Amino acid sequence: MDENLDFEKVTQDGRDSYYARFTNNSIFGYSAYIQNTNEAGGIYINYSIQCRESTKECNDQVKEDEFIEWLKSTKFKEKDTDDSDEL
């Protein structure tokens, strides 16, 4: 893929998400990175769909708002605390 992507930012409690739409011939989708803002770590996501030329409505299958809702639903597990000394 030889394309400069323009990333958008979505800020939520405990994480910042960056995403951009890409196209490459008959393949399109989203690249994203979710940064944990509470601790070190993050997740890279590449979501792609390959369309047949005969399918005119293929671009409508992945709407940006649906992808963002899915992206927002991704959460990091909180670090467990050791409460073994407490009764």
Task: Give a structural overview.
The chain is mainly beta and about 90 residues long. The chain has a single domain, classed as Single Sheet (N-terminal domain of TfIIb), CATH 2.20.25. Helices cover about 10% and strands about 40% of the residues. It is built from one helix and four strands. It has a four-stranded antiparallel beta sheet, covered by helices on one side. A hairpin with a 2-residue loop joins strand 1 (about 10) and strand 2 (about 15-25). The longest helix has 10 residues, at about 65-75.
How are the SSEs ordered, and which strands pair?
Layout: E1 8-12, E2 15-24, E3 27-36, E4 42-50, H1 64-73
Antiparallel strand pairs: 1-2, 2-3, 3-4
Q: Strand-and-helix sequence, N→C?
A: EEEEH
Report the CATH C-level class. Answer: Mainly Beta
Output the structural class: mainly beta
Mean of pLDDT = 81
| Cα gyration radius (Å) | 17 Å
Strand content: 35-45%
Looking at the overall shape, the CATH architecture is: Single Sheet
Strand order of the largest sheet: 1-2-3-4
Report the principal-axis shape. Answer: elongated
CATH fold name: N-terminal domain of TfIIb
As a percent range, the share of helical residues equals 10-25%
List the domain count as a whole number. Answer: 1
Total helices: the number is: 1
Task: Please name the defining characteristics of this protein.
elongated; four-stranded antiparallel beta sheet; 87 residues; 4 strands
